Description:
By secondary structure, this protein is mainly beta. It has one domain. It contains no helices and ten strands.
Amino acid sequence: xxxxxxxxxxxxxxxxxxxxxxxxxxxxxxxxxxxxxxxxxxxxxxxxxxxxxxxxxxxxxxxxxxxxxxxxxxxxxxxxxxxxxxxxxxxxxxx
Length: 95
């Protein structure tokens, strides 16, 4: 394991650390009370999509659709729904 150390002259040095970093165990995400399973990319983000001041959960899926879940008010998320432009779901080409 390496650790970056910044020197006052603006140079960056690398120093060896004695122990590897420990990662937290994975967390299962839930939307609308059910575990989120399917073909989602593993990098969800939080963003205020609708401008109401609350950040929504935004996830892209392998089919190219953007899925959005509204906060449920209890620290969880409502059902995932496709993000639309008008009445049509937004679809991105992944490949």
